[in-house]
Amino acid sequence: NDYVAPARTTWVVPEATKIGISMFAAFGFLACCLVGCMLLFYKEHKLIKGISMTFSLLTLLGFVILDLSALLFISNRPDKFLCFAQLWVPPIGVTIALSALGAKTYRIYRIFMKSLENPKLLTDFYLMRLAAIPVFVILVMLCIHAIVSPPCPTTSVIERENEITTYHLCNFDKDFFFSIVAVLSAMVFCITKLAYDAREAPMQFNEAKELGMALYTMALSGLVGVPMIAWLQSRQEFEVFYICIAAFAIVPVVAMVAILFAMRILYAMMGLSVADMKTAIDHIPKLEFVMETKHNANNETMMSLSPHLNQDQDSTSNAATGGGCSHATSPVLSPHHSPYCYKAKAARPTIGHVRNATTLASSALHTGVVGGKLIVV
Hints:
The protein is an alpha/beta fold. The chain contains ten helices and seven strands. It has helices spanning 15-41, 46-49, 53-68, 80-113, 124-148, 174-197, 208-234, 238-269, 274-282, 351-366, and strands at residues 7-10, 152-160, 163-171, 286-295, 301-310, 340-342, 373-376. Strands 5-4-7-6 form a four-stranded mixed sheet, covered by helices on one side. It has a three-stranded mixed sheet with strand order 1-3-2. α3 runs antiparallel to α4 (80-113) and α3 packs antiparallel against α8 (238-269). The longest helix has 34 residues, at 80-113. It starts with 6 loop residues before the first strand and ends with a strand.
């Protein structure tokens, strides 16, 4: 008889995994604390003062909660209390961070993009009440889930290659989990829309770029992390399952903290002003497309488009000598002006800019101007 009874084991989180997750969580926690201290130290600097200290610290609080929630998933035998914590803590951390970001973005939007009839409606106290609404909604959803289908510890027995492994896990309602993800996704979309609409606000108040990148990071983490975690759970790959949960709780936090605050803190530490930041941005080399029109031997009009990296932003003032564009911010369509210039706001030309260049070149041909130069900045 060659029968061999299957070996029975109980799965535990490897020590190396525990140490790794703990170290990364500690790094994220220390990064948030360091950024918080730097914000308080340089709170009088215009670049720091303009982004609302109260809500910036509240954002960091949400990130800290989300970061430390990774430690909830390294227990070998979760009990009922730990199962509740695994379900409640991560969404609450994300909601606090998003609510704080949304509140200060809304204030910038109302001040600079809309008429402000009652300034009292944009105080920290009033906006704090607005920020509490999403948190309240998530808490209500969590309470309903706790009443209808509370999370509880369970076991999963898997047999692979003559080995039976018992996993101690927490059981959640998947439909409820995805409903929370849907609410958080709606918050990300709304805040992104506000940030985009407020992109023309003064630079010391304008966090549109930082918010856009941070929200993109969060959205990308959700789009990749949620399906991956659900897929790993369905395949009962619990070893990788817990590592992915911890990774998607820690890595986005560190990335978003750096995106939101690192640049402003760096400028504050260097003692640079808003004007210095604008000057630095203005001197970033820009790619130009130079389009020239001329006649060939058969008197046919030819057009050519070639790229050019302009590192001297002042060269655009030499249009009178044929060295570039004038400072006009709109296309010059008069046949008495040459070269023809089109200056785009974007630092990197797009297909739309090239189409505009082609349109201007065609206009030059129709007006009878030959040999003009069209520069798309």
